[in-house]
Q: What sequence folds into this?
């Protein structure tokens, strides 16, 4: 049964089915490399395409690619431009559509500021980690949080994962995708697709 | 509450949580191209890595890459060998682990025959399509089917989708991932990750 139109319950139900107040950041610094050193990882151009298409599929408000390396930001901006307004826009309109909400930022703070300036409030921050922590929350609980008021930022680390301090400062920590099967090495683009589906799929 | 150990209900519950009797085929022929012509698409080497890791994450029995092009089969076999026993096995053992159940076949019939010869029975065949058909089944129903006896083959088309005849001959047709949001252009590697999660995630 649906709640009566216009009521708070109705608004919450509709909101729970839309991703417009949820944003996603793909973070290239600070992340770990194979040797557990903190580095700026390289942008994988295929991640840009794949994740933009997943974001579009689930109606995500904005997709941010975060890197402090100016040359890499320029590269991503050129890719995005090619598909948004260049030859790519004619060649593949579905890709153009996917990339319309894609942005490039220098730092995670810049992402938070951009969301705050566009929506009038800072987002709550949510990270995933391959490890389960005492404060990790499940996907059902997170769906409830996302259906409430406010903006949200899902943060994903590249390389060998987000620097520990970023994880600790996040408002919410999501449970690992498959906690207990002994193998946890999904590509970040696959993890993002699965997590968006768990949090936002039509049910 | 769990059913008593050793009972049929217990076996079915365990089976429902394992992917060992589920196999996956990534099909490069017969598929459509952009102009709706039937073609053999090129193998994307990144698909091989991404999908192998998703299969390993969900415990899939075997991952088959299907192409009638001998040069492409050779290419995939070289990639798989590099990570299984070549330098890659030392460099990245988690990738080696992911690729251990990866095989290359000439045709879809060869995949079915391989499964039949290894397990003593042909698999039921399951395809997904971006379009909903009258006989499409949902993910809850499919989980029940997969928890029952027998081998299963999930088939995914590359390019612009599996040739219609292959879809029509399949035993089951899975419902589209996001049927009613107006945008349905996920990369096949993302669609596979989401579908394996829906069918096999620990709950």
A:
């Amino acid at each position: 049964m649906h709640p009566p139109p216009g009521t708070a319950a109705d608004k919450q139900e509709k909101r729970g089915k839309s991703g417009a107040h949820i944003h996603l950041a793909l973070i290239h610094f600070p992340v770990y490399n194979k040797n557990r050193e903190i580095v700026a990882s390289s942008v994988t151009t295929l991640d840009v395409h794949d994740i933009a298409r997943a974001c579009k599929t689930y109606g995500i408000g904005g997709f941010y690619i975060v890197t402090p390396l100016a040359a890499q930001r320029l590269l991503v901006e050129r890719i995005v431009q090619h598909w948004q307004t260049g030859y790519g826009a004619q060649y593949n309109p579905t890709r153009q559509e996917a990339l319309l909400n894609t942005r490039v930022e220098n730092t995670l703070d810049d992402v938070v500021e951009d969301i705050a300036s566009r929506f009038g409030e800072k987002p709550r921050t949510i990270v995933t980690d391959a490890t389960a922590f005492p404060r990790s929350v499940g996907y059902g609980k997170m769906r409830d949080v996302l259906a409430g008021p406010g903006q949200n930022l899902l943060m994903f680390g590249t390389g060998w994962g987000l620097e520990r301090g970023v994880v600790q400062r996040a408002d919410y920590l999501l449970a690992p995708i498959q906690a207990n099967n002994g193998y946890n090495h999904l590509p970040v683009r696959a993890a993002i697709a699965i997590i968006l589906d768990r949090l936002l799929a039509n049910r």
